[in-house]
Predict the 3D structure of the following.
Amino acid sequence: MDMTKITNEYFKDIQSKMKEYTIVLLKITPKRNEPGANDIIMEHARRNLVLREDGLVSIVCPVFTDPDFGGLYIFNTDVDQARIIMDDDPAVQAGIFHYDIYSCKGIPGDSLAV
């Protein structure tokens, strides 16, 4: 496979445009199987759409194939604000999910392929 060649100038230009983001990894707890959890998960999912529409989150990727891993977010905020947002999540408050949070850098404008 022929890959695109990247010049040093282009590489430096892209590096100068990198921005800080926050990655949140959701982990599923045993409370996911308790009665009423599905209703809380629906509110969690609805809230994810609000975060997306309000521009706080660029990427929301639920994972349905792993019993321990719930999904990931890429927040357009710093770690402290992402933590505040996640601590207010109904599924986190109910103990259905807990999360790990990481600061990262990315290139603005990156997106999922259509």
Notes: The mean pLDDT is 95. The chain has one domain: 19-106.
